[in-house]
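chain below, 198 aa
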Amino acid sequence: MTKTVEFYFDLGSPATYLAYTQLPKICAETGSELIYIPMLLGGVFKATGNASPAMIPAKGRYMFQDLDRYAKRYGVPLKFNPHFPINTLMLMRAVTGIQLRQPERFQAFIDCLFTALWVDGRSMDEPQTVAAVLSEHGFDPQEVLALTNDESVKAVLKENTETAVKRGVFGAPSMFVGNQLFFGQDRLDFVEEALRQI
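prediction:
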């Protein structure tokens, strides 16, 4: 039986960035496959009545302090993006398009976008900034832009988001091991535990 972690993610979540830095290692150590499923966090929030913790000032301040603690524990860079919150509709369509049409470049694609957002603090809801980041990493901005306008790509992202909500997802990151849902990068130890019990 193949052990899998289904990773529902949106680039605009700093907690998702931290989970993304750790999940490949957890999967490698447990002999599991990591399945990336792009979704639109704004769509999930709308469907579930949820909102970003950052919308509550005291909670937002705490959240970013806590994420910084985890980044130090994991030994990974994390910079609060001054442009947060980011509208990720275009980015998540691009991610979905690359996953569908150029799967061999998918990892490099999300690597450069996560880094731009949560290490370099770039304004990734500005098309010219996105184009610059893509060019710097060997991607053709026009080709990627075309993917974001592709109706079949839009449909897959919408379907992923609807499926996430049906499965009980209310935020990001959300991970499934079998039918067990784990929410938040601070639940990765439970993800690992579940994988080791299979």
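The domain at 3-196 is CATH 3.40.30.10 (Glutaredoxin). The chain has one domain: 3-196.
thats it, cya
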